[in-house]
Amino acid sequence: MKTQKEMMSKVIGVVVLGAVVLSTGCTHVYVPKESEYKTDVIPVYTVASKVTLVNGQTDDTEIEYAHNMGHTFVADKKDWTEQAIGIAERELNERGAGSAARNDKKLTLRVSDVQVSTGVWGFRGTLTLDVATGDGVAKTFKGEAPAANLYNASSGCLSAAVAAMLSDQTIMYYLTN
Predict the structure, then answer these.
(1) Cα 113–109–103 angle (5° rounding)?
(2) pLDDT tens digit string along 18-35?
(3) Strand pairing category for 123-133 and 102-118
(4) Alpha helix positions (H), the chain
(5) Please, what sign has the CA dihedral across residues 170, 144, 46, 35?
(6) Do 166 and 39 meet the contact criterion of CB atoms below 8 Å apart?
(7) Which residues share a beta bridge with 118?
(8) For the segment 126-151, what is each residue's pLDDT rounded down to a tens digit?
């Protein structure tokens, strides 16, 4: 029969092993969902031309953008830019771009930064989206989104940045003329 000392040694060993496993955490690659958030804050207008959307992000290295409970979350800014393009394409098509007769507009998008921070009541995602029009206008848009979980904060800040871009007076003027 095992002694009490041997049993305690085993229990302590299991506890230490569990603490080591929990503290090492994992790394997760996350790409936002393009349909997670509605972009109904974008004004109603009619796009005058089909719009070519270009992924201007050439950096496909993964960056750390969030930490939560021992887990590290990484983002590929090129993939995130593709999701921004998907959201923009959907919104532009709802505004007539898909059926427009002309084909002379272009937007080059680039997600340049993303961060999700943990707060007392949840998470806050912030994202920077750089945009260049076909006629040379370059602008930067910020998207922010508070959420109860990290994934919604990630998707929300991406949608918010695209909504800010498509709500901007300069971008709207370019797209409607």
Answers:
(1) 170
(2) 444 444 568 888 888 766
(3) antiparallel
(4) 4-24, 77-94, 150-167, 169-176
(5) positive
(6) yes
(7) 123
(8) 999 999 999 999 999 999 999 999 99
